[in-house]
Amino acid sequence: MKKLVLSLVLGVSLIACKNDKELKFEDKNKDADSTQIATNVEEDSLKSHKELLEVKAEQMPNLLTAKTNDTLYVTNFFATWCQPCMVEIPHFKEKMESLKGQPVKFTFVSLDNKSDWKTAVNDFADEYGLRNNIVLLDGTTLTPEFFSQNFDTWNGEAIPFTLMRRGNMVDEYMGSMKKEEINSKIDKMMAANFAPSIDQQKEKSKITGKK
């Protein structure tokens, strides 16, 4: 199958940044039987662990899809080389600390190069105390279909990108958020009346924000 290439140009701004690497997207499943693909990543797999956990692209939907409980799931895609990401994450960490014991789950998905996983990402996880909240995702394995099937507004061109989901409420935000924006979005979603997601009707109640 012909490879699809998404060229990402390096550029750091106050809102988002793009990688200077070419992420080669290809259909990794074309010759694989569905029984050969591991897709069972549960929330419990993100429990305390010594090594940062690697998650495969085909496992990500298990972390991103709507759940039937009333927990708010905050998933942030970042990289240590992305300055806007580094500005934003401490705000998430502060909010995470203030919500201890409440039904909210924070996951930070590193899109760093694999060569940086045991160095830059590992050091970052320890510096910010996020070892149990960071997972590793090899961006070179992501296909255009990965983005179109999992997100409404993100095509992978830039990070940071944040997905917040609670029942049928969904918020997608591409770019770095200020502390006030993070707090406002999370507070609104947690305060809203909980309604389980109705997949067959594909209903989404969005809390929109500045893009």
From TrEMBL:
Domain of life: Bacteria
Pfam families the record matches: AhpC-TSA
Annotated SUPFAM superfamilies: Thioredoxin-like
Location of the Thioredoxin domain: 35-191
GO MF term (any one): oxidoreductase activity
The protein, known as: Thioredoxin-like
